[in-house]
Specification:
8 strands, DNA-binding, alpha+beta
Amino acid sequence: MAAPWQTVLERPAPQAARALLGWELWLGEVRARIVETEGYHTEADLACHASKGCTPRTETLYTGPGTLYVYLCYGMHWMLNLTCCEVGIPSAVLIRSIAVLEGDQVVRQRRGRSGPQATNGPGKVCAALGITGALNRQRLDAADCPLALLPPSRPVRRAQRGPRVGVAYAGSEWAGKPWRFWEPGWPVASPR
DNA sequence: CTCTCGATGTTCT
DNA sequence: GAACATCGAGAGG
């Protein structure tokens, strides 16, 4: 029997990124709503890590929907991605911002602050949830997976889309793709 | 409010 | 050796 998230992740990243808005991440005492995402899709996408091909680092991206792809950025920030599409096609959604629904105390302790500024950014998401590279390659459907992905407890009223952040190096064609999505009204990193 | 800059480690050239 | 899907502190307006 398929997990609920299967239908959301079994599609190309640009679509999966939109569909993931509102879904909830549960990890330990923290429950949070996904409010900003970005899609990275195929080796042709020059902003996608897999544009360099399948390497020890990027092989996680080829494993099909439901794998955690966690990597270190700028030597100090962990980034959380959920792989999507199908086996063999590198495709993933970066979780850029979340809204804490439960576990505010824990988040405050980990982040040194609470409120919107505590979780509006991809590095902040991992810090708030306590995610590190130890979770890379973890399967969402594995019995021992500490992270759960559950459907929205409140519907997504509307969504905005725009170009991805921090990928100018990929050139205008790819940096310009409107593959970033967010829910207006929630604490997101880039509200436009 | 905006802008600049440094921290820090893995990956690929 | 350069580049990098970032963050937060500090300076200046």
